[in-house]
Each structure stands twice: as C-alpha cells, then as structure tokens.
Amino acid sequence: MTIYDIDQIKNFLVSKRISSGNDFKDLEIMPIYSANNLKKYIECFGNENENFDTVIKYYNDFSEKAKDSKLTKREQIYWLMIHGVEVNNKGFAMEFLTQRNYFYKIIQYVKDFPNEVVDFDQLVDLSTIDMELRYVLLKASLDVEHAIKTFLSRIITNSTTHDGYQIVSDVFKEDDDFKEKVFRPFGRYESGCFKINDGYAEIYKHPSFWFVIENTTLGKVTPFVNYLSQKSPMNKDLTLIKASIYSVSKLRNKAAHSNGILNTDIIKRKRNINIDSNIYNGLIMDGFNKNIFRTPLLAQIAILIFLHKKLTSKKMHEHRILEIEEVVNRSKRKKYKNSPTIDGFISDLNLLLTN
Questions:
Q1: pTM of the shown model
Q2: What is the Cα Rg of the chain in Å?
C-alpha cells in the first residue's frame, strides 16, 4: 500500500472539494496508517463536496463496525482496498460480488494468504480455480464412494459367513449412537428422544447392510470397512480402502461445500504429512512425486486419484484424469509472481499428473 504523508492527503481532500473549517487539524493528529485508510475510504466512496467532519463520522462509523457486521457493496470494496487488494475496476468488482460470487467467501483468500493476493483479478481467478477443482474432485470422490459401496456389497453377497444383517448389528453394537446417526434422515426428535418415521420401524429394528450402505455417506461407511478389515486382514483392497477412506471422505466433504478448498491446506509444510505406510508405498510405486506429500490438499488429491485408479474402470479413470488436467491447465493462465504459496501450489498441482 502506498504511504502518503499528511500534506499529500490534505491536497487530495482539497482536490475532492472536501471542506474543513479548521484546515484539517483533525487529520494532523491521526496516525498515518489511519489517515491513509481514510484516503482510500474517500477514493472508494467518492465523497465530493462534503464537510470533513461528516466524512470523518462516516469513516469512524465504518471502522467501529464489528468484524462480522454486514457490509454494503461499496464497503466490501473498501475492505479489500485497505487489506492490500488493488481494485482497478470498482464497477466490475461490485457486479462480481453481487451476481457471480459473494464477499464473505472470496475474502478468505485474503485472510489465508496475506500480502499474496494483490489485485481483484487474482481473487476472481482463484475463485474460478477453486470452483472448477471442487467440481472435478467431487465427481471423482463420488466415483470412489460408489466403488467402495459396490465392493463392500460384493463381499457381503459372496460371503458364506455374512448374512447382511449380523454385520450391521455388530457394527452398531460398537457405538450406541451410530445407529441413530445412520437413521437420522428417516426419523425425528420428540421431547429429546429419537423417533423413527412411519414406514421405517421394521427396517430400524432389523436393518440390512444393503439398506444402510445405500442410504449413508462415505464417512459412515468407515465402521463397516474397519469391521470387514478385521475379519479379512489379508484382503489388500480392504487394507487400502481402510487406510484411505478418511482422507477421501474429508476431501469429498470439502469439495461438496461451497466454502472452498484453496485454503491453508495448500501451504507446504517443512516435513511430509502423516500418511499410512500402505498408501504411501502405493503412491510411490505408482510414480507420485514425493514433493506433493508436504502439502495437505495435494496429498489428499493424490490419495483420491490413487484409489480411483484402483477401484474404478480404466475408461472412467482416464476420463476423470482428463478433467483434472483441464483444471490444471486452466490454473496456469495467471501468474502469481508475488504469491509463493499460491504459485507453488499451482506448480505442484502439475506434479500430480506426471505419474
């Protein structure tokens, strides 16, 4: 941010036809940081032909707003400016924040990567990359979720020891609250007690594996994976699924929500993050670059790609990889020369596709 001295700011106020009965004496006792922010405030709101005391009042009212207070579109632009984001086209910025995205989402990039996002065009670009990456990762995650459910159903169907009911009973016994969590979409709470909806009472008493697996999320599949892994410790596919399902489920949930995935998880750590040895060895054997294991989001994406390759058809996997490549190529359109975290992540994103 350019730092102006008091005389420069006074000249600016005069150029804006802002009048002062005491020759801007209040400005002289302001900290220079506040005076610079005041200048940006006037630049943003265009308060021409106003009294300086009125401008100060509006500025102080804005400054005293709580952090979570609602801001007008103009105030949103001002917030960006005083946090180091250059807004060259304020009309476009306000249209973008009104019609195409919302302020409280994109400012997360400013908060997570201070001093790295320097202009509004970068915010637009990051929000687009974030959206496209979330969409393709969600599709790949849903592919894996379906493949895991199909794989588990096949084990139960082909087993001579599992009848499809006992496994559910055994898993529910491990956690008294788990049954209620699974059946929450089919029930309600009355006077603090869970009541199953009409039509599901019999299923609730004797739930089958096929009903549960069809009507639950990937995260809630995990206890069944753990159970079957204990029963079949030599099943390598089960071992890989058990080791990776938490990571895939976490990434799937992040991709499904609109709050974005380009957050502090793209910051590279000093050391590799903790990855199960079975998955790590599998990733290395599959040719994944070791450099990506220092970045949490890249490691999660690598695990998803690895499991997707193992569990889905060759044609489906190739199709998803092409979609990821399109997002990677799109992410290289804009250079983030002064943004080592963002630029480094985009560069390393390419490493995922070199295996």
A1: 0.84
A2: 27
